[in-house]
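This is your field. Please look over both lines of this record.
***
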Amino acid sequence: MARSLPPLSALRAFEAAARHLSFTRAAEELGMTQAAISYQIKLLEERVGAPLFLRGRRQVSLTADGARFSAECTASFERLSAAYADLCGSSAGVLSISSVPTFASYWLARNLGSFQLEHPETAVQLTSTRRITDFEREPVDLAIRAGAGQWTGLTAHLLVAVDYTPMLSPLLAEKLGGMPVTASDLLRFPLVNTTHEWWDLWFSMMSVSQAGCDRRTGPTLGSQDLEAMAAIAGQGVSLLTPFFYRDEVAAGRLVQPFAPLYPIGRGYYFVYPTARRNVPKIRAFRNWILPHFSASSLAKA
């Protein structure tokens, strides 16, 4: 049975214009003129029998039909692109990874060498950033994100749960009269990010009342990697995820005085566009990284 499809040129013009919400940017991406983009979209609208864009003086927006069709077009082109890449070769090329700083510094940078040894034909580019990657507009293949694991259009594999517990430098403990024995002992220590809600939740889990306590405050920092550095430097006690600091504990730079971890319902996830799951270099990285973590790390689409 013959497929009913519009011209590929019209589909490409529409998908690019819908993704950018700009005929001009679509023309730049496809190496066409703005008039040619407009003409191709007009042909598509005539075939459909309904407008796909609302055209304003300075900008365009999608109609309801256009928005629905755009999502399907983009997903289809992504699948076609992935299939083409799979056809073209193995995992050769450049693998671009975007990672949140904590995971990049305390795990990925320390272990990427083994991936390179297994795949010498693939050049890895690792970027450490707190900014959320836009896979549609940036040349990034995969990312490590912190969050709840729900991102539209992405497959997310849980690697590490973000469970917090206090950690500190033994030098700080020595300076302030010894290592804390009970959770309430921490109230005599400077606490990094003391205003953060996780401190209150951890103390509550440990049945420590803070009523009437003047909690000592350390520096206020914006991310776990910086909080870990502050703790190692003896600036205060930080709530950290112990998984990342095994080397620091083994070397005596950090101590985890209490076993209980407070689960905050978030984690570090390995993510990539679902439509590109079979691209060889993404598949190779997935096959390498997942065995390093718990088998219970489930993929969420």
User: Anything to note?
Assistant: The chain has ten helices and nine strands. The first strand starts at residue 53 and ends at 55. Strands lie at 53-55, 60-62, 93-99, 122-128, 142-147, 154-167, 238-240, 262-273, 299-300.
